[in-house]
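A.,

Following up on our hallway conversation. Structure tokens first:
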């Protein structure tokens, strides 16, 4: 009786449905327009740090910080009094030596005449000739000292080596500067401006081809996205590809040049270079949600009609039954374009790809499309 009661109380469980509901689309190719994005940094084509050549106190600053300066414009002045005194002393010494030379020349001429008439000792004549030569050498040495003092005096004024924008002054009036160590300021050119970005060595042939083209296409091959996500109004062109690939990272630097007439771009800005992909063939694309990432590799599930063994519940006979199964395929992805991604390898057009319900699948799962499920991210 206990067994009968237990059997009567036992509830019947509903049959387990092994089919997982999914949504399926056919993989197809389409014409796509997209850009390859590269982090980039703006740099001046010409930039120099102004360093003093002399030691002394700053006595003059002749520019507006952050403003535009012309080539040869006077920027700084170092106290010139000591260097002016050194120049005046060297100039006076030169005059003294020139007077000694004149005296030595007269003595040499006089002893040369007496020597021809055997009216002076040979030794006296020789000493006069040597004294004349020494006087000439002293004049030459004094002349070089004047030039050196003049150069030092000229270095008390610092001029702009080229036209460009000057930064904030690193020294103020009265600061004492040292030669070769104190940075006074920095000047950089503005128009045009360079934009440097790094590519993988596998992409080098593509950029070499673009670099060697006689003329770039008229469309926006190289555009620039600014830090505020707006697009810079002008397009750029390749100026330089670096000398060598970095063996540590397998990367190489490419430099673009952009016009900058209104000085919108400043050196050191972080931007994004957008390179228009010139692929003209249709590309195979899928929704992003159809692609599954596992350990850095990418997979999709495809639906394939498959014959499976089926045992009849009434007769127990085994027969072949057609089922729709999900199978995993490894793919190579390309550029992401909004909600879609380009599939480069691993999938053929026309294959049925599962786009919803992939979280519940594994290799060989029985699936069905009879029960439509809402797209990922939306309620039923």
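Then the amino acids I'd put at each of the 380 positions:
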């Amino acid at each position: 009786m206990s067994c009968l009661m237990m059997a009567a109380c036992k509830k019947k469980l509903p049959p387990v449905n092994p089919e997982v509901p999914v949504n399926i689309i056919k993989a197809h190719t389409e014409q796509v327009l997209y850009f390859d994005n590269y982090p980039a940094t703006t740099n001046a084509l010409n930039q120099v740090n102004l360093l003093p050549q002399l030691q002394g106190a700053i006595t003059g600053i002749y520019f507006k910080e952050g403003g535009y300066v012309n080539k040869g414009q006077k920027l700084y002045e170092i106290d010139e009094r000591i260097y002016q005194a050194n120049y005046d002393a060297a100039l006076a010494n030169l005059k003294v030596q020139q007077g000694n030379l004149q005296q030595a020349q007269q003595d040499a001429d006089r002893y040369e005449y007496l020597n021809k008439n055997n009216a002076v000792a040979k030794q006296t004549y020789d000493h006069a000739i040597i004294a004349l030569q020494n006087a000439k050498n002293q004049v030459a040495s004094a002349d070089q000292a004047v030039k050196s003092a003049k150069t030092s005096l000229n270095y008390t004024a610092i001029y702009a080596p080229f036209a460009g924008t000057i930064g904030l002054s690193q020294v103020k009036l009265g600061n004492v500067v040292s030669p070769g160590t104190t940075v006074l300021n920095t000047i950089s050119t503005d128009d045009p401006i360079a934009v440097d970005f790094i590519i993988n060595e596998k992409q080098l042939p593509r950029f070499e081809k673009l670099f060697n083209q006689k003329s770039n296409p008229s469309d926006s091959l190289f555009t620039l996205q600014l830090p505020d996500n707006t697009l810079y109004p002008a397009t750029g062109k390749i100026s330089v590809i670096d000398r060598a690939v970095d063996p540590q990272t397998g990367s190489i630097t490419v430099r673009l040049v952009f016009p900058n007439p209104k000085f919108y771009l400043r050196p050191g800005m972080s931007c994004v270079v957008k390179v228009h992909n010139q692929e003209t063939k249709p590309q195979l694309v899928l929704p992003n949600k159809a692609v599954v990432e596992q350990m850095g590799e990418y997979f999709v599930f495809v639906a394939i009609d498959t014959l499976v063994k089926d045992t009849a519940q009434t007769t127990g006979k085994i027969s072949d039954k057609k089922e729709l199964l999900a199978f995993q395929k490894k793919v190579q992805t390309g550029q992401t374009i909004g909600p879609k991604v380009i599939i480069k390898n691993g999938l053929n057009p026309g294959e049925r790809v599962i786009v919803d319900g992939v979280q519940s699948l594994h290799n060989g799962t029985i699936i069905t499309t009879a029960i439509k499920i809402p797209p990922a991210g939306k309620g039923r």
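The CA atoms of residues 31 and 280 lie 8 Å apart. Curious whether your intuition agrees with the design.

B.
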